[in-house]
Amino acid sequence: QEIVSRESEEESSGVNLMEFSDEILLHILSYVPCTDLVLNVRRTCRKLATLCLDKSLTHTVLLQKDYKVNKDKVKQLMRDIGKEIYQLNMAGCYWLPSSTIDHVTRCKNLVKLNLSGCHVTSLRLSKMLSTLQHLRSLAIDVNPGFDASQLSSECKATLSRVSELKQTLYTPSYGVVPCCTSLEKLLLYFEILDRSREGFMLSGQLMVGESNVPHYQNLRIFYARLAPGYVNQEVVRLYLAVLSDRTPENLHAFLISAPGSFAETGATKNLLDSMARNVRLDALQLPKAWINGSGLLQHLKFKNPFYFSFSRCTLSGGHLIQRVINGGKDLKSLTSLNLSGCVHCLAPESLFRKAEDDIDSSILESLVVSCCNLRHLNLSAAHHHSSESIGNHLCQLLSRLKHLLSLALPVCSITDVAANVEKPPVASNLVPQTLGRKVRIGIQTYPRNLADQANQKIESSVFWALMGSLRFLETLEIIGSSFSSAMPRNEPAIRNSLPPCVRAQSVGDSEVAAISQLTYLQSLTLAQLPNILTGSGLINIGLQCQHLRTLSLANLGMMGKMVYMSALMDMLKHCRCLRDLRLEQPYFCAGAQFFQALSHCSSLQRLCIVSRSGTLQSDAVMSFMANCLEVIMCHMFMGESLTVCKNLQQSIVRSFQADRPALNVVIFPLLHEDLTEVIRDVPMRHLDEITLFKSRVAEEPPNLWW
After folding, report:
1. From CA 299, how far away is CA 321, in angstroms rounded?
2. Helix (H, G, I), strand (E, B) or coil at 545
3. Three-class secondary structure of residue 454 per DSSP
4. Listed residues 139, 170, 187: the one ending a domain
5. What's the Rg (C-alpha) of the chain?
6. Residue 525 lies in a domain
7. Fewer Cβ in 10 A, N or C end of the chain?
8. Residue 706: what pLDDT?
9. An example of a Gene Ontology BP annotation on this entry (predicted)?
10. Which helix (DSSP H) or strand (DSSP E) does residue 303 occupy?
11. What CA–CA distance (Å, rounded) separates 320 from 297?
């Protein structure tokens, strides 16, 4: 009735969208996907026909998450506005056939082009680039079969003018790097597997005819991210060999992200020594073996640093203060800091210290004062235990960072020191206790609104105060310091998990409820919170955090029982903007009630469930897919048999693939020996963004690529 009354009022007042100014209409239209603007909206009336072709709307075309776009729409789009497009982003459009790329040749004025995740052969790349004479920024994949000798002279001429290149390697190759003689920014993603599909060991040596030397003389930014595997390490050393001979004078960002052990060699040592002598950096990330035990940081010079990552390094807090933040000087420019897995970074020294010992609050205070403009901070994967000193709790010190947009913390760092953290929750605590009212055993009860929760929560806790002070936080990760996902990258699924930290035993529903103060929260990750009894705090988040788009929950409460299912279902009914949901919990039952609640998430696009010994109901999954028309990714790794999984996967693909071109379905037993082979076929966009669990705060420098 209220809606009808409002509509009648609008009609009587004569409000008409077309009466708004062009500026307001253009702003509204900027939220509409370009394919809809050009192919649909502009056909409604003459005014919109003109506005939809305004340069502000056609200058940059973003198709990277337009999951409804298909080959025909791209073809028509390029015909209609191809000459008006200067920036085109098709990253992750894995569902489009390679022939779609042929239509990009109509965009004669392209300056920036992103084709990461698209199927592009060397011949098609050559034909396309030959026509794009104004191109200055390019992102592509280099797949097995790529042959640089097939690139035409016109293509190489275009590449010689490219100053920004992002290259994802799935095979040992230089790709197009040797052709790019004017490179200023080089981003390399190494995703080469150690074994072929047939089981043969691969070599990191480049293919015959690929011995051309890259040109780094104008390089300003060098970034390399390696997936696990020795072949990736071998290939990146070939790229670094040229840098070690002559370090570019204008180099100001040098970043290498390498998991595990990546040993330093004579060539890399020469490179680092040359950098220490000749350049002043603004961004730095190095493998832990290159920093641990060396005096490198003492010699490197920094200009106006905006990004540091010392992930998994044994860097002590004393060295951090003395060698990196220079006693608190000139660090106002730092906006992003990654200390994930840096277990001693808040202690004065690491020689005789245990990882579980209390932090030195003076080090954290120096860090907060010196880096007061931090927007992204990652302190996860370590035990950061605060002492009993009043006013020196980690949460109290972090509350001074008013500009924070993303934050990652270990679970044990947010507990109140005054709480009895030495004793884990006893069995009697599993039954909610009330005064003057009987409670049925086995029936979970929890508060239904913030008022009831406030009565049970001591809102003077340090974590509650921290959440209240970071009102503009958009991304929050609270991850157990000993948590490891059961979902592998290149290894079999993990069958056993480590117990949570003793200090984390008291963290549960009330701390989760505190998160509901973050009105602008868009992404939330909670992993290994052992004292979740009912999940009541999740309901508060669903009610208050209406901008939430990404939710990842893993190993909450008791491992042998899904204690928060009822609260989760209530929460999901309020998550209208949720697009990505990842759940990792043993013994999870993906049944009709769960999927019925999930169907309220009308914006949901991607779902991933990882559950050892988990079960699913095929009919419920099919009904959910039929009701949620936006879902294009369904990954479920459960305890069901291979036959059940395959039949359900085939049914989903057969029923919905025609209407959802980007549909990607993987349903497979979690502990099956062939899981790694299945994982390698998952599109990198989904694998990197949701399927694999990892901390993403300050993972890369902000705005590394558009």
Report:
1. 14
2. coil
3. helix
4. 139
5. 27
6. yes
7. N
8. 74
9. SCF-dependent proteasomal ubiquitin-dependent protein catabolic process
10. strand 301-309
11. 9
- Write down the residue that tokens 């390696």 correspond to: 226
Please give the C-alpha separations between residue 648 and each of 33, 125, 654, in angstroms, as whole numbers. 32, 38, 10
Distance, CA of 215 to CA of 205 (rounded, Å): 19
DSSP-derived letter for residue 510 is H
55: helix, coil or strand? helix
CA 172 from centroid of its chain's CA atoms: 26
Q: How far apart are CA 435 and CA 511, in angstroms?
A: 23
Scanning 14-143, the segments in alpha helix (DSSP H) are 22-29, 34-39, 46-51, 55-58, 71-81, 122-129
| Neighbouring residues of 134: CB distance < 8 A, sequence distance ≥ 6 | 108, 109, 110, 111
Q: Residue by residue, what is the 3-state secondary structure of 355-404? A: CCCECCHHHHHHHHHHCCCCCEEECCCCCCECCCCCCCCHHHHHCCCCCC
> What's the rounded Cα separation, in Å, for the pair 42 and 22?
14
What residue numbers bound the domain in which 613 lies?
409-414+463-489+499-690
CATH of the domain at 622: 3.80.10.10
Write the CB contacts of 239 (distance below 8 Å, at least 6 apart in sequence).
174, 177, 188, 214, 224
Q: Is-contact 225 188, C-beta < 8 A?
A: yes
Domain end position, chosen among 115, 139, 163:
139
Q: Is residue 552 part of a domain?
A: yes
Please list, in sequence order, all residues whose beta carbon lies within 8 angstroms of the beta carbon of residue 626, skipping any fewer than 6 positions away. 655, 656
85 within domain boundaries? yes
CB 279 within 8 A of CB 271: no
| pLDDT of 431 | 36
For 117-141, how does the pLDDT look when each residue is reduced to its tens digit (9 = 90+)?
A: 999 999 999 999 999 999 999 999 9
Residue with tokens 């009701």: 627
CA nearest neighbour of 414 among 379, 372, 373: 379
- The tally of CA atoms less than 13 A away on the side-chain side of residue 289 is 10
Contact 23, 35 (CB under 8 A): no
pLDDT digit string, tens, across residues 177-227: 999 999 999 999 999 998 877 777 777 776 544 556 678 999 999 999 999
Q: Residue with structure tokens 């009630």?
A: 593
Q: How many domains does the chain have?
A: 2
Strands (E), 79-192: 87-89, 112-114, 137-142, 164-169, 185-190
Phi first, then psi: give them for residue 51, nearest 5 degrees: -65, -35
Look at residue 659 and tell me if it is in a domain. yes
Tell me which residue of 381, 406, 411 sits closest to 394, measured CA to CA.
411
Q: In angstroms, what CA-CA distances link 302 with 305, 328, 374, 661?
A: 6, 13, 17, 48
**And the tokens for 346?**
């808040």
**What is the rounded CA–CA span in Å between residue 222 and residue 334?**
19
- pLDDT lower than 70: segments of the chain: 1-14, 206-213, 293-294, 327-330, 350-351, 418-459, 495-496
Contact predicate 622/650, CB 8 Å = no
Locate 499 and state its tokens. 């117990």
